Fold this protein.
Amino acid sequence: AAFNKGTYAADILRVSGSGKCEETGGNLKIVGPFWAAPIHDQAVIDELLQRVECEHCEQSLPYPLATAERMVGLLTSMAEELKDVPLHYNLPELAATLRSSVPSQLEMRSA
């Protein structure tokens, strides 16, 4: 790695083989490190959901939130995330396995 005038550049990692992606033919890029453990504490999310959703409960927030509906949506999404999924999906292969067409990126992100 090199540090020069406030910029950081990673060393080039030599890879065996062609150094090209089998799918696209593009250059391979090595990134990391990545976090492979859960990123959410389910107990904390559950308690936050309960506090935001319940206006008259003992554990409710002491004041109403203008963004409560958005918070419920975000916390629900976090609670429903799969805990043991791989980091990468090959959408064409997944669609072929399911015998369906490949969804657009917009459809995938808004699912």
About this structure: The helical segments are 42-53, 68-80, 91-98, 105-109. The two ends are 39 Å apart (CA to CA). The longest strand covers residues 2-4. The first helix runs from residue 42 to 53.
